[in-house]
UniProtKB/TrEMBL annotation:
One annotated GO molecular function: phosphatidylinositol-3-phosphate binding
Gene Ontology BP terms: DNA repair
SUPFAM superfamilies: FYVE/PHD zinc finger (SSF57903), Rabenosyn-5 Rab-binding domain-like (SSF140125)
Alphabetical list of CDD domains matching this protein: FYVE1_Vac1p_like (cd15761), FYVE2_Vac1p_like (cd15737)
Natural source organism: Saccharomyces mikatae IFO 1815
PANTHER family cross-referenced by the UniProt entry: FYVE-FINGER-CONTAINING RAB5 EFFECTOR PROTEIN RABENOSYN-5-RELATED (PTHR13510), RABENOSYN-5 (PTHR13510:SF44)
Domain FYVE-type, first and last residues per copy: 72-137, 215-297
Protein name: FYVE-type domain-containing protein
Ranges for region Disordered: 34-58
GO CC term, one of those recorded: bounding membrane of organelle
């Protein structure tokens, strides 16, 4: 047997002699029964020092082991993976916390002093678990922070200034070109050689306003990168001079009438702005690339859209949104008060409730019902608005469904509280005692006949429910025509819930219902 090259039967690590293998088995795999825990990394150093004849035992400082968890063969488990610790998977104590781990889950090293405390300066390296490794001071500390906000602002301002200068250049070119073309149009209007003169004069004007790029060496469109050929011609943008194609599908450039361009940029100082309507039918147009169109008109279009009043649908939706904010703000207050009332009643059914609190709760409920009714009225008004496009029609349908679900959700908590008679006015303390209505128990209020106020509230609730039922029925009919059958199934369920609630309210009203 070759005793010079031996390998560990567990991890297959090679050693020079048997002595080194024995030390490895004792330290790494825990075969030393005299140790407190399997896999002690300190035993090698201690054994070597004991073999040294010059070794002084009083100078040795061992790592603290009193906090180490004792190994119980067949019972101890790894604190990370939960496997039972044995010689195959190893069993080693974390030098910091003392818990037992398998060999796989003790890969980290930290510096500890003899008291098992963090000591990154004078400590020695020891194995530790992941939790102790990440808990050491400075592990998650951030490094040096440099505030680059000023630099970014500077770069942004430079780019913004460049963009503004570019925009100002395009606007000046645009005004000069438009005014020059209108001047030429007025000069040669009625002339026999109008077409010939306009073509040559406008071409000269365009080249003086904007320096055109040389087109001989350009083989590809500067926007879509498509190669030019017999079917894809080259064109110069009249504002930037860039060479682009005229493909309709790619929309790299467009020939646009001067009248429309002047209307879209009404804030520019055109000399003939008042004549823009007459120029809509004049044979005057300018070819512009999409980049110049975006730079010149996108910002102006956005500003005009923001300044324009909202359409009928969006105006009604804004009102509905404001009402929903009021409902959402009052509903938690009402639900909390109602839950407190139910808790008091559940604890003592014979308890006489405070009439003032009940009256306040009833008034809050009445306010919520009024808000829900107003929300429902705004919904009907929104549905009656004629949509101006398919997009508004889709939005109208979506808002109708969402409002129906919203009202159905908010009306449910308002059904829990019965109406209570308001106290009559009192003139004196004696009259107050005589005229004050009797405070009744909640259990009695629930079984007595309906009051006038309760009948009124139930009627209002019935009106809202019927209106929501009508909205959902109309939506179902529309979806059936559009073959949106999955949404029809969900709406049918909501419709059944509404009809069930309508029958319940109608049964409560009885003869007091609508005739």
């Amino acid at each position: 047997m070759d005793l010079e090259n031996v390998s560990c039967p567990i991890c297959l690590r090679k050693f020079d002699d048997l002595n080194a293998l024995n030390v490895h088995l004792d330290v790494e795999h825990g075969f030393d029964d005299n140790e407190d825990s399997l896999g002690s990394n300190d035993s090698r150093q201690v054994n070597n020092k004991r073999k040294n004849p010059n070794y002084d035992g009083n100078k040795v400082q061992k790592l603290k082991r009193s906090h180490w968890e004792k190994l119980q063969r067949g019972k101890s488990r790894c604190h990370t993976c939960g496997r039972t610790l044995n010689n195959d998977i190893g069993a080693t104590n974390c030098r910091k916390c003392g818990k037992l781990y398998c060999r796989r889950h003790l890969p980290n090293m930290i510096k500890l002093d003899i008291y098992a405390q963090y000591d990154p300066t004078n400590g020695k390296w020891h194995n530790c678990c992941h939790d102790c490794f990440v808990a050491k001071p400075g592990y998650n500390d951030y490094g040096e922070a440099v505030n680059l906000t000023h630099d970014f602002f500077k770069i942004r301002n430079m780019q913004k200034e460049d963009k503004n200068l570019r925009l100002l250049q395009l606007e000046n070119r645009f005004v000069r070109l438009v005014d020059g073309m209108i001047t030429l149009h007025q000069k040669y209007t009625g002339s026999i050689i109008y077409n010939l003169k306009m073509k040559s004069e406008v071409s000269k004007l365009e080249r003086t306003v904007t320096p055109w790029r040389e087109d001989r060496s350009v083989l590809f469109c500067n926007i879509c990168s498509e190669p030019f050929g017999l079917l894809l011609r080259k064109h110069h943008c009249r504002l930037c001079g860039m060479i682009v194609c005229d493909d309709v599908t790619r929309n790299c450039s467009n020939q646009i009438n001067i009248g429309y361009l002047m209307s879209a940029a009404s804030d520019l100082p055109f000399k003939y702005y008042r004549q823009k309507d007459d120029l809509l039918h004049a044979p005057l147009s300018i070819r512009l690339c999409t980049q110049c169109i975006d730079m010149l008109f996108i910002g102006r279009k956005f500003t005009k859209d923001v300044a324009m009043p909202l359409s009928g649908i969006f105006a009604k939706y804004e009102s509905m949104k404001n009402i929903s904010k009021v409902i959402d703000g009052l509903m938690p207050i009402f639900e909390d008060s109602l839950n407190n009332l139910k808790l008091k009643t559940a604890k003592d059914s014979e308890n006489v409730l405070d009439y003032k609190n009940l009256n306040d709760l009833a008034r809050l409920r009445q306010k919520l019902l009024g808000s829900v009714n107003l929300y429902n009225t705004l919904t009907r008004q929104l549905i009656s608005v004629e949509p101006r496009s398919n997009l508004e029609k889709k939005l109208q349908s979506s808002i109708k469904i969402a409002s129906a679900a919203y009202i159905n959700e908010k009306i449910l908590p308002l059904k829990s509280l019965p109406a209570i008679l308001n106290p009559e006015g009192q003139k004196t303390n004696n009259e107050k005692r005589q005229n004050e209505p009797e405070i009744k128990k909640l259990s009695q209020l629930m079984i007595e006949n309906l009051t006038i106020k309760e009948v009124k509230e139930l009627r209002e609730e019935l009106m809202v429910l019927k209106e929501q039922s009508y909205l959902i029925e109309s939506t179902i009919q529309d979806y059936k025509k559009q073959r949106r059958l999955e949404e029809v199934v969900a709406l049918n369920k909501n419709l059944e819930e509404l009809r069930s609630r309508i029958r319940t309210v109608q049964s409560k009203l009885g003869d007091n219902g609508f005739k």
